[in-house]
C-alpha cells in the first residue's frame, strides 16, 4: 500500500450537489434516486456545507419507511431549510491529499464524507465507503 496515493484516485468525481435554496424534500429524492448518503451544499460556486441522509432522518420519520416506498410524510421538511439542517463545520481536502491523511481525518473526527476542492472548485467527494473499498482492493 502506497502511503502517498492521492485521494483523487478513490474519490467520486461526479458529485451530486444541491443549492442552499433547494428543499429538503428534493434532497431526500436525490439521496434515494442516486443511492448516496452525502450531498455537498453550494451557494453559487462555493461549497458551504454538507447534508447527510442521517441529517434528514434526525428531523423526520423517514426511517420508519422502507426505501422502496414513496409515501414518506415529508411535511416536517417544510419546517426547516437545508441550511438549518446541513453540517456547517466544513472540512475539505484537495485532490492531492493522501488517502492516509483522509483516513486520519475520518478517524479523528465524526465525518463520513469530505468534499474534495481544487482551487475553490468542487472536484469530488470522498467517503468512508470509498476508503473501505480501497483498503479491500489492497488485500
Automatic annotation (TrEMBL):
It holds the Pfam family CBS. CDD domains: CBS_pair_AcuB_like. Keywords: CBS domain. The keyword Protein biosynthesis does not apply. The keyword Chloroplast does not apply. It comes from the Bacteria. Transmembrane segments: none annotated. Coiled coil: none annotated. Residues 11-67, 86-139 form the CBS domain. This is CBS domain-containing protein. It comes from Pukyongia salina. The lineage of its organism: Bacteria, Pseudomonadati, Bacteroidota, Flavobacteriia, Flavobacteriales.
Amino acid at each position: 500500500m502506497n502511503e502517498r496515493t492521492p485521494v483523487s484516485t478513490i474519490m467520486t468525481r461526479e458529485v451530486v450537489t444541491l443549492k442552499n435554496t433547494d428543499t429538503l424534500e428534493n434532497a431526500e429524492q436525490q439521496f434515494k434516486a442516486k443511492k448516496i448518503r452525502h450531498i455537498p451544499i453550494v451557494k453559487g460556486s462555493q461549497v458551504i456545507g454538507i447534508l447527510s441522509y442521517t441529517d434528514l432522518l434526525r428531523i423526520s420519520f423517514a426511517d420508519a419507511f422502507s426505501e422502496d416506498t414513496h409515501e414518506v410524510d415529508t411535511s416536517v421538511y417544510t419546517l426547516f431549510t437545508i441550511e438549518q439542517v446541513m453540517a456547517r463545520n466544513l472540512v475539505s481536502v484537495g485532490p492531492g491529499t493522501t488517502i492516509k491523511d483522509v483516513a486520519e481525518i475520518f478517524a479523528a473526527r465524526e465525518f463520513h464524507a469530505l468534499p474534495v476542492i481544487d482551487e475553490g472548485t468542487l472536484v469530488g467527494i470522498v467517503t468512508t465507503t470509498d476508503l473501505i473499498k480501497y483498503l479491500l482492493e489492497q488485500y
